Amino acid sequence: MKDAKTQVTVDVGIDSLWKCLSKDLHSILPQVIPNLVQNGEVIEGDGGLGTVILFSFGPDVSDMKYQKEKIVELDESLHRIGLQVIEGGHLDLGFTFYKTSFQLTAISEKQTLVDVVYECETEQIVLPSKTTAGAIACIKGLENYLLSTDTI
Fold first, then answer.
1. 127, 101, 125, 129: which is closest to 115 by C-alpha?
2. How does pLDDT run along the chain (152 residues), one tens digit per residue?
3. Distances (CA, A) of 36 to 107, 124, 141
4. Exposed, middle or buried by CB within 10 Å (0-12, 13-18, 19+), for 135?
């Protein structure tokens, strides 16, 4: 199994970012990064562990049309969520396993550190740089969304 790690600091509080990431991701991503995610829909579950989300990709993702992701890790107290691709997307590109985990850590009342870990199985020697760039775009999009609304 291969993995890649990245991290980013955002200027929003941990509780607001956690709500976006763990509860509202499917509905907010199309608003904040429509060029990457055109639509998100919960197709199974109640938003908790085991929930399946269908993401339809936008025009900047030319090599994938959609991806189904399942919440396989969810720890409210640790602010940790893991999403595993179960159909389409990366699995259509030669990956046999693909999981992204987000770990949030409060730095201050209005600043959060986000650690992102990718775990995958693939024939490729290295993970494409688009993998980490996509997660950073997602987190920065959520940050901009929260900063532009009254929800922080």
1. 101
2. 778 889 999 999 999 999 999 999 999 999 999 999 999 999 999 999 999 999 999 998 888 899 999 999 999 999 999 999 999 998 988 889 999 999 999 999 999 999 999 898 876 655 555 667 778 888 888 998 999 886 54
3. 28, 23, 11
4. buried
Q: Say if CB 13 and CB 109 are below 8 A apart.
A: yes
Q: CA-CA distance, 87 to 90, in Å (whole number)?
A: 8
Strand ranges, E, within 45-110: 52-57, 66-75, 80-88, 95-108
- The CA distance from 89 to 133, in Å, is 16
Burial 24-34 (b: 16+ CB within 10 A, else e): bbbebbbebbe
The rounded distance, in Å, linking the Cα atoms of 103 and 113 is 8
- pTM of the predicted model, to two decimals? 0.87
